Amino acid sequence: MKDLKYYLDILGYKKATEVQEKVFPMSIEGKNLVVQSVTGTGKTHAFLMPVFATLDIDNKDLQVVITSPTRELARQIYDMAKPLFQKEGVDVRLYVGGDDINKAIEKLEKSNPQIAIGTPGRIKQLAIDENLLNVYKVKKFIIDEADMTLDSGFIPLIDNVLSTINKECAIEVYSATIPEAISPFLKKYLSNPTFLEINKKDLTPLNISHYFLKTKYRDKIELLSDLMNALNPYLCIIYCNTQDTVKYVYSNLKKFKNVCAIYGDMEASKRKSVMRDIRDLKYTYIVSTDLTSRGLDIKGVSHIINYELPQDIEFYIHRTGRTGRMLDEGLSISFYDYDDDSYIDKLENKGLHTEYKDFKNGQLVDSSARYQRERKDFYKSKLNQEAEKKLRHKRTISKKVKPNYKKKFNREMREERKKIVEKRWKNK
Q1: What is the pairing mode between strands 363-366 and 354-360?
Q2: CATH superfamily of 208-366
Q3: Is the dihedral of CA 222, 224, 230, 232 positive or negative?
Q4: What whole-number distance in Å separates Cα of residue 381 and Cα of residue 36?
Q5: How is residue 212 annotated by DSSP?
Q6: 82: Cβ–Cβ under 8 A, 6 or more apart, which residues?
Q7: Helices 220-230 and 243-252 sit at what angle, rounded to 10 degrees?
Q8: Contact status, residue 194 vs residue 31, Cβ threshold 8 Å
Q9: What topology is assigned to 4-198 in CATH?
Q10: Per-residue pLDDT tens over the stretch 334-385
Q11: What are the boundaries of each domain within the chain?
């Protein structure tokens, strides 16, 4: 059996990442694993290398199944495995929606692959509906991006497939997060699993700068266009929360020749073509939903722009994790306004180091503290009634109005409300 260094050399890596070092020996032993690892840490190769290390090359039966929730992620795993199976002469096949199902069936009628990589729906179709993919012979079953698989509603499909495998089959689950809702599934199929949590304390890689740019109710498309003219990214992903917003933003950015869009409802062949062009560096800017935020390894992403902040903080982590991968540096720029203060508070409370910027004269410049404007508004608002009430009481009990009383009263008023305001903001 070949060791970890052998496979690192094939892949061109000088050393293993933490998740690769920890997973390799346990996967070799055939343990059931639940691996939680933040994005960009090399977890795909963490499960691929031991797969090839333990594969019986002389056995032409199906030995390993790997599922991923989107066709892009499945195709990425397949592409990342290519150097390994081309070197070892292993039969690896990809099964995803949008590809010709009849060709896959025709080939399966002749023989099974040794490793099958695919989306849950296509794997279930070939294994259960067509009864051609011999999953009952599988020795290892790997579920990648388990939380995304759960969110997409694919767990019942995998459940259907796993119900046909043998009890000796090792099951490995990989995910950026392990939601509570997936626990019943894990308990059902994983006997005495080993749990590994990698980089749990790190909110995002340390080599990413997080800029927050207040829109101040400016036209966001205009601000985005100005920002794109100022930046010089190698590759930048512009994230929106919905497909409709992606279409709207993209339609307003067509003046930039180097911009493309990708989203879930896009025709399969078009998505495949766009992803190929992205990897061939035909575009500099990608307008996208969270389709590209999970697991998808688009190499060379130097910038992230959050046109809209994602509702879930976890997705902020996934989005920004597209840049600053491995040892590269990255920059995330997020549009925000007053309504987003509590959201940013939560990020900062989790340990995220934030920097605040303005866009002036065609460039990003340092901005004052996020609360400075709010403090100024607070001083002038009716929220300082507490100070007014206290000082008015002094005025009503005074029987004589002394010279310069009004001037003195206003000075005391400013001092009193400043004390109250500063105390409140200190405790905020």
Answers
A1: antiparallel
A2: P-loop containing nucleotide triphosphate hydrolases (3.40.50.300)
A3: negative
A4: 48
A5: E
A6: none
A7: 60
A8: yes
A9: Rossmann fold (3.40.50)
A10: 999 878 888 888 888 878 888 999 888 888 898 876 655 555 554 445 445 6
A11: 4-198, 208-366, 382-426
